[in-house]
Each structure stands twice: as C-alpha cells, then as structure tokens.
C-alpha cells in the first residue's frame, strides 16, 4: 500500500509540474504578443509625433506667409 500511495503522490506532483510548465509557456506567448503590440504602438506614436511636428511647422510657415501678405497689403494702402 505504501508504494501505491507514494506512486500516486508522485503522479500528482508530475501533473502539477506539467501544468506549471504549460502555464509558463502560455504566459511567455502572451508576453511576446504584448511586446509586439507595444512595439507597434511605439512606432505608431512616433509617426503621430512626426505628423504633429510637421503640422506645427506648416502652421508656422503659413503664419509667416500671411504676415508677409499683410505687410504687402499695408504698403499698398
């Protein structure tokens, strides 16, 4: 009886260890997916920052051009 009991306990331990291994593999896959998502979001953010920077530069350029046009109009009047 002792041998059967010990074997059963080892079997339960093996099952628990296998479940832990499976859980670790699943968590590693989830971690990898999240790292890819983070990388994609960082690239997207950099693109938006670049677009915003371009927008600000264009706005400043337009403001300068409008100022030039207004100065020319003032000299005509």
What key phrases describe this protein's structure?
single chain; 77 residues; mainly alpha; 0% strand
Q: Helix amount, in percent?
A: over 70%
Q: Report strand %.
A: under 5%
Number of helices: 1
Spans of at least 5 consecutive residues with low confidence: none
Structure description:
- The chain has 77 residues and is an all-alpha fold.
- The protein has one helix at residues 2-76.
What are the SSEs and their pairings?
Layout: H1 2-76
Quick recap:
With 77 residues, the protein is mainly α. 97% of the residues lie in helices and 0% in strands. It has one helix at residues 2-76.
């Amino acid at each position: 009886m002792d041998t059967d009991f010990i074997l059963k306990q080892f079997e339960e331990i093996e099952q628990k260890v296998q479940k832990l291994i499976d859980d670790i593999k699943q968590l590693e896959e989830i971690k990898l997916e999240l790292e890819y998502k983070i990388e994609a979001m960082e690239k997207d953010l950099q693109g938006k920052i670049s677009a915003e920077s371009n927008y600000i530069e264009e706005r400043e350029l337009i403001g300068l051009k409008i100022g030039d046009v207004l100065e020319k109009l003032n000299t005509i009047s």
